[in-house]
Design goal:
Elements: E1 33-35, E2 41-43, H1 49-55, E3 61-65, H2 88-97, E4 103-107, H3 117-123, E5 128-133, H4 138-145, E6 151-155, H5 160-166, H6 170-182, E7 187-192, H7 201-210, E8 215-219, H8 238-255, E9 260-264, E10 274-277, E11 282-286, E12 296-300, H9 306-311, H10 316-323, E13 329-331
Helix pairs in contact: 1-10, 4-6
């Protein structure tokens, strides 16, 4: 079992090979679905996402909240309600009940706040692991995570001024980003798009390219948590999102930016596409627009397997369509 992360300014971090994209053992899925260098799923054949969803017995991807705690207070954060962290024993039960899923996001809150995160990562080694993080503890954690997660997904909302206004300490996060890279961990960047950050998106894409990120993921805010306090003008329309994405694709061609880019607007086709497992094991479809807190309760993974959750999940087609890029705005990773 691993202990709490090492620290100190003299820490030496050695590069390691990146984790290969894989779907081993309990995480095996449809043969026509692959996990790409752009850190997303793609079809390797002409299979129809809706047909794959209808034939599937488990979701492609699940978000598992290992904590609700966070050291940031982002203006758009939807996860503001606190909950007790799950124990390692509970997480092991959930792990067993997720058999059949390909990818698990060990999420939060901020997962790097858990001193036993190394144990959790080892516990979930049979899955493609994504680690969403704000990277503020990247310097301490990078050596222990090296070679164990498929990619680190870093919340990064634009150049320094925009970043500081909506998220937190740009330089502290960038230090964590560099630590992940030095340890050989593949990274992606993830941003919530507000009207006040819209003009900075080309600069953000340039940053993603300089960092050789696998993917730049863009999502629109949801009216939940801190985002309930956002000014109405901060919420852009789907049409504005489409225009901004088209501009990014144009600039991507002009400047030869390499990372994949994906933007998720909230439409009928993306409703309920995520399955979020809260720290108490409750599995919910998210976002479901007419439900309180945008959550639709599906069951509890401390009590039943994900196959039972999937059976009663009403958004199977949306789930596969989104994760396979059929219902969102996408451009694949280019170059080598």
């Amino acid at each position: 079992m691993t202990s709490s992360p090492p620290s100190g300014p003299g820490l030496t971090v050695l590069p390691v090979p990146p984790v290969p994209a894989r779907a081993p053992g309990p995480s095996s899925g449809p043969a026509s679905v692959t996990f790409t260098g752009g850190h997303h799923f793609a079809l390797s054949s002409t299979a129809d996402p809706a047909a794959l969803a209808a034939a599937a017995s488990a979701p492609l991807s699940v978000i598992l909240q290992v904590t609700k705690r966070c050291d940031f207070n982002c203006t758009f954060c939807s996860e503001t309600l606190q909950m007790k962290d799950p124990t390692l024993g509970q997480l092991d039960v959930i792990r067993g009940n997720l058999a059949g899923v390909q990818r698990v996001f060990l999420s939060g809150g901020e997962p790097l706040l858990r001193r036993d995160l190394g144990d959790i990562v080892d516990m979930y080694s049979g899955y493609i692991l994504g680690l969403p993080t704000n990277a503020t503890r990247g310097l301490a954690w990078a050596p222990q995570l090296a070679g164990k997660v498929a990619f680190v997904n870093i919340g990064f909302d634009g150049p320094r001024a925009a970043f500081g206004r909506v998220r937190g300490d740009y330089d502290k996060v960038m230090a964590g980003v560099r630590a992940f890279q030095q340890a050989g961990l593949p990274i992606s960047l993830s941003a919530v798009v507000l009207r006040s950050t819209l003009a900075g998106l080309p600069y953000l894409y340039q940053i993603a390219d300089v960092l050789d990120a696998g993917k730049l993921k863009l999502i629109l805010p949801l009216r939940k948590g801190n985002a309930l306090g956002l000014a109405e003008r901060e919420f852009i329309s789907v049409e504005e999102a489409q225009e901004a994405f088209a501009r990014l694709r144009e600039l991507r061609t002009v400047h030869d930016w390499r990372p994949a880019v994906r933007m998720t607007p909230w439409t009928a086709g993306t409703e309920g596409h995520m399955i979020v497992v809260e720290p108490n094991g409750t599995a919910r479809a998210w976002p479901v627009y007419d439900q309180p807190d945008l959550f639709l309760t599906l069951g509890n993974l401390l009590e039943e397997p994900v196959t039972a959750i999937w059976d009663r999940y009403p958004y199977k087609a949306n789930h596969f369509a989104k994760y396979l890029g059929a219902s969102i705005l996408t451009a694949p990773r280019s170059g080598t």
